[in-house]
Amino acid sequence: MAPGPMLDVHPPAGPPNGEPSTGQQKSQKAMTKAERRELQEKQRAAKAAKAAANGAPGKPSGKPKDQGAPQGGAAKPKPSRASDAQARPTLPAATRATEKAKAGQASMAVDTAAKGTQARGLLIFSHFGLPKPVSAAKGDIHPAIARLALQFSTFKITGANARCIATLTAFKTIIQDYVTPPNHTLSRHLMTYLSPQISHLVAARPMSVTMGNAIRQLKLDISGTDFDLPEQDAKDALCRKIDTYIRERIIIADQVIQETASNKIKDGDVILTYARSSVVEKVLLEAHASGRNFSVIVVDSRPMLEGKRLVAVLSEAGIQCTYLLLPALGAVMSEVSTVFVGAHSIHTNGAVYSRAGTALVAMMAKRHSVPVVVCCETYKFSESIQLDSFTKNELAPLGDLFSSFPNTKPRENLTLENKPNLEILNPLYDLTPPSCITAVVTEVGVIPPNSISSIPVALGRLL
Questions:
Q1: Of 50, 242, 320, 412, which one has the fewest beta carbons inside 10 Å?
Q2: What distance lies between CA 121 and its chain's CA centroid?
Q3: What is the DSSP letter of 450?
Q4: What is the DSSP string of 77-88?
Q5: Do the Cβ atoms of 221 and 238 come closer than 8 Å?
């Protein structure tokens, strides 16, 4: 006798247990989370209704493995799913899914609003290099690099020359501690080993032009190392080349600039300088040591207030100094004989990239027909052309003290920091156009700003 039809067990829409067909499974990939949850609720409700209609509270009796199972208790039904489906609130599945979707959208809107509040600021400056704490080291980072990165990120070491010397000194330590692995050569594997060290420094603070030129020269020296040279001799030779670079491109260059620029200072001159440049400081001390009688006006600005250190050094040496902030510049510019400023880098179009405020000082000096002299080593030369200080810049650290008068608040309450209704923006550098610069004093001579591109020729194209 033929078995009875199974139409009452298998639904016509698909396979048993309310499982979706292959076409439905494919369409689920395009569903949203709320739609998939709604579909699951419908399937559970249909399964529970079918089980109730067949008189079985558990699994459908039409499933092949349930038909062949013994009745003793091995095929005990699982009342949890059916009872859970029946015990749910009387709201339809679609309504519950809609409410969950609305709740999810509301929470996303709250999160988006919170993020928007945190990042509201001036988004136009979001590409500036932000001062940030050093993250966990990725890869094999030498302790000297980890320490140096921390000093960079907290601005313990500032200034183009100081950062370059500190970087090269750390690389000397790395080279001496380096051991070439088996089946490798020093000239190739050392370059690979230095890459994460450099990346770690850049993550702490954007690389300066001076550091980039020095690292480029170091890589050139490493690639030119003799293969047949013993490892320790090769490392000693690289350290000597680093010492030579520091001595010739920075120390001796500063000495030549001191002699050249100090000759521009005469008795009775009033020299104005902005912030603090190590080269300008040496020039003023050299001129004073030569017996010239002159005075210095140090213009400073927040948040770095680097001019305070320069005033302390010059006044201790016996030089008559005047200290003022940048807004008062116009009151003293008519008394100035010459303006001396330093540079972070100098570009091939003659523009000078220096501490923010230098461009204002140079433009004010040009307005009053006061010569502007830039003291800059040639290793700060960049072959790129920069037209403004917006495309590339950094932000100075926060935490500037805002003095109130009368000073009735404690010192810790005078610190300016980002608040819900306050966003602090402190660009670190600006760009002085070549039209506001009279001359650039380098170790290869005094160069007009429109001839800066000739520096590589004067150096034999070795930077």
A1: 412
A2: 17
A3: G
A4: --HHHHHHHHHS
A5: yes
Residue 208 DSSP one-character state: P
Q: Which amino acid is at 262?
A: S
At 440, is the secondary structure helix, strand, or coil?
A: strand
Tokens of 250: 């920075």
What are 340's strand-pairing partners?
Answer: 273, 373
55 is written with which tokens? 């008189």
Strand partners, 372: 339
Closest to 56 in 3D by CA, of 40, 67, 43: 67
Residue at 234: amino acid letter: A
Model pLDDT for residues 142-188, shown as the tens digit of each residue: 999 999 999 998 889 999 999 999 999 999 999 999 999 998 888 88
Give me the DSSP letters along 235-278: HHHHHHHHHHHHIIIIIHHHHHHHHHHHTT--TT-EEEEES--H
What is the SS3 assignment for 376?
coil
Question: In this structure, what token pair is assigned to residue 297?
Answer: 């006006």
pTM of the predicted protein model? 0.69
- Residue 80: pLDDT band (50, 70, 90) is very low
Find the helix packing angle between 93-118 and 33-53, rounded to 10°: 160
- Give pLDDT tens digits for 39-49: 888 888 888 88
User: Can you spell out the DSSP letters for 84-123?
Assistant: HHHHS-SS-HHHHHHHHHHHHHHHHHHHHHHHHHHT-S-G
Angle made by CA atoms 299, 301, 307, in degrees to the nearest 5: 55
**Gap between the Cα atoms of 424 and 106, Å rounded:** 31
CB 186 within 8 A of CB 225: yes
Give me the amino acid identity at 119. A
Q: Which residues of 414-443 are buried (b: 16+ CB within 10 A; e: fewer)?
A: eeeeeeeeeebebbbbbbbbbebbbbbbbb
What tokens were used for 397? Answer: 């650290």
Look at residues 37, 46, 42 and name the one whose alpha carbon lies nearest to residue 99: 37
Whether residue 299 contacts residue 307, with contact meaning beta carbons closer than 8 Å, is answered with yes
Q: What DSSP string describes 298-333? A: EEE-TTT-THHHHHHHHHHTT-EEEEEEGGGHHHHG
> CB within 8 A of 453, min separation 6: which ones?
348, 349, 350
User: How far are the Cα atoms of 134, 165, 173, 211, 418 from residue 152, in angstroms, in the given order?
Assistant: 9, 13, 18, 12, 21
SS3 361: helix
H/E element holding 221? helix 209-223
Find, among 388, 365, 376, the residue nearest to 438 by Cα. 365
List phi, psi (to 5°) of 440.
-120, 120
